[in-house]
Each structure stands twice: as C-alpha cells, then as structure tokens.
Amino acid sequence: MLQGLMSDSEGLEEIERQIEAGQFVWRMDREDVHMNIEAALTDLISMVKLALQNQGLIVPGYTHLQRAQPVLLQHLLLAYVEQSLYLTIILSSTNDVLLRFLERDAGRLLDCRARVNFCPLGACALAGTGLPIDRFMTSDALGFTAPMRNRKGCEEKLLSANSITAVHLSRLGEEWVLWASEEFGFLTPRDAVSTGSRIMPQKKNPDPMELVRGKSARVVGDLVSLLVLCKGLPHAYNRDLQEDKEPVFDSVKAIVGMLEVSAEFAQNVSFNRERIQKALPAGHLDATTLADYLVKKASDFSLSKKKIPAVDMIQERDSNI
Predict the structure, then answer these.
(1) Catalytic choice (9, 64, 302, 319)
(2) What mean pLDDT do residues 218-227 have?
(3) Backbone angles phi, psi at 195, to 5 degrees
(4) Most CB contacts within 10 A, which of 5, 28, 128, 259?
C-alpha cells in the first residue's frame, strides 16, 4: 500500500531538483535557507508521514455516517493523498505561484496548464494584429507551448480545478472535525492547532480544519461568480471581463492557504488508539466479512444475509452475560 510514496530522502531530492532548475520559491517570511527547505519538505510529505506513523491502526469505517467495516487508518488517509499526493506545480512562467497539491488534483492542474499554456500576445481583442510581429518567437521566448490561435478565456479551467481540490480538503476537514469531537474521540489536535472558548475553557476546538471547510465555500463561490459573469458574453473581449480578476486571485490565495493549514494540522494531531479500539466491537463491523465467508462456503448471499442477524443476536446475548 505504501509502495511508491515519498520518503524524507526522496522529498529532499525533489526539493534539490527544484532548486537546481530554478523552480523553488524562496519565501521571505522563512528566516533562512534551512527554514525554507524544512517547510517545503513538511508540505511534501505531511499526510504520508501521518499514515506511516499510524501503520496497523484499525478504525471503524463509516458509510452514511453509520459504522460499516473495519479499515486501516492509513487506508483512509491515503485515500486523500490519492485524491490530492503532494506535487509541486508551477502555475506561471515567472514562477510567482507555486502550489503544492495533494495526485488527482495535481493532475487536473497539470492538465489545466497544458490546455491554457498558449501565448496571448498578438491575439488582441478579436482578430489578431496586422503588425509584422513574430508570435512564435515571443511564445517560445516566454515559455509557452505555442501562440494562441483565437482569443479565449482560460480562468474557469483553473478555478474549476481549485474548486474540486477545495471540496476534497473540506471533506477531510469535516471528517477530522467529527473525529475530534467527544462523541468520536478518535483524534486529538495539539494546542498549536486548536483553540479553547472564551466561556468554555474545557473545549479544544479543531478550528483550522473548520476554517478549511469554510474556505471551500469561498473557492467554489469564486468559480460560480466567474461562470455567471461569462455565461452571457458573446465571443471575444467585453468590458465585463474586468470583473474576472478578483475571483481568480481570491481563489488562488484561498486554496494556497487551505493547503498550508491542512499540512500544518496533519503534523500536529494524534490518534487515540485506546478510544478507537474500544469503539471497534460495536456496530457489527465484521458482518461483511462473515457474509463473504458464507458465500465462499457456497452459501447463497441472500441466505447469508438472513443468517448473519441471528449470529449478531447470539454475540450480543453472550456479551451481556
């Protein structure tokens, strides 16, 4: 299951490759070279590292928010990694924007870049220019794939990819907020990533993931704003498009913040093994395994479904004696 996931050494090799290629973004709010590299490495491997720290921990798995089957915690965590494995993606030719995204989400942005990486210089507002410019030269010099054939919008592709990522992060946030509640008690955030209450000092709220969950509405809202802005526009440039900048910049800023907060939270939580193990016997989590066993023994599956409740009743009776 863990084959092919990024280790510390592999993460450092990836960062070294970015530095050598001139793609690494040095942030001024981090004190020195070491702080920059350490923070980048943390972003690259945070969720994978959390899965590795909890190998073998079985937790109740839920469907419809009802207990369903026992699953490995790392299976759940790596499901989010598969949706979203930390990759570095350059979203501008000047390397101004560097986002770290959790495999499928990164793939969408890579696909987005491939679809929109065409040079608009010379496309003008509608039908190009009659001036003797070499569009292929400027396109190549600026790192584009080719000149843009016709003027077209591309922002909705980026905001669509951002919105899907935001939904994935929001679902992770919702799950962890539930698990941090007293009703579940599966997860405890450290003080660095939780808050109390002004009138209820006993509380330890997972505020960062609540904010991630809330920010997803903003990112999706940015996409909706852009789509509604564009839905009635005829071909080519219209003055309405001066309104497209705000949702684009806001979406990128929000998604970067959501990713950074999620990575920080993942590095500052612990899973309560004792509470989780006490929760496993309830809910007949082994019912599916028993049904599979009866099917393998040549029993009809519909018949096995009738047998299992009787077995569950016997188990409950025995546990109450």
Answers:
(1) 64
(2) 95
(3) -135, 160
(4) 259
Catalytic residue, candidates 7, 92, 93, 197:
197
Tell me the per-residue pLDDT of 261-305, one tens digit each, with 9 for 90 and over. Answer: 888 898 899 999 999 999 888 877 877 777 777 777 765 556 655
The backbone region for 236, taken as left when phi is positive above 0, alpha when psi lies in -120 to 50, beta otherwise, is left
Q: Where are the alpha helices (DSSP H) in the chain?
A: 8-20, 33-53, 73-84, 104-116, 135-141, 155-179, 207-230, 245-266, 273-279, 287-296, 301-320
For residues 153 and 80, what is the distance between their CA atoms, to the nearest angstrom?
31
pLDDT of residue 157: 86
Average pLDDT over the chain, rounded to an integer = 76
- How far apart are alpha carbons 88 and 74 in whole angstroms? 23
Q: How far apart are CA 165 and CA 102, in angstroms?
A: 8
Amino acid at 299: S
The token duo for 100 is 């770290």
How many Å apart are CA 122 and CA 144, to the nearest integer?
Answer: 13
Query: Quick one: pLDDT at residue 103?
Result: 63
Average pLDDT over residues 187-216: 90
Binning pLDDT at 50, 70 and 90, where does residue 75 land? confident
197 is catalytic: yes
- Cα(206)–Cα(259) distance, integer angstroms: 16
Count CA atoms closer than 13 A to 229's CA, side-chain side.
21
Is 270 annotated as catalytic? Answer: no
Residue 4 Ramachandran class (φ > 0 left, ψ -120 to 50 alpha, else beta)? left
pLDDT for position 120: 84
What pLDDT, on a 0 to 100 scale, did the predictor assign at position 212? 95
Residue whose entry in the numeric block shows the structure tokens 């945070």? 46
| CA–CA dist 188, 182 (Å, integer) | 10
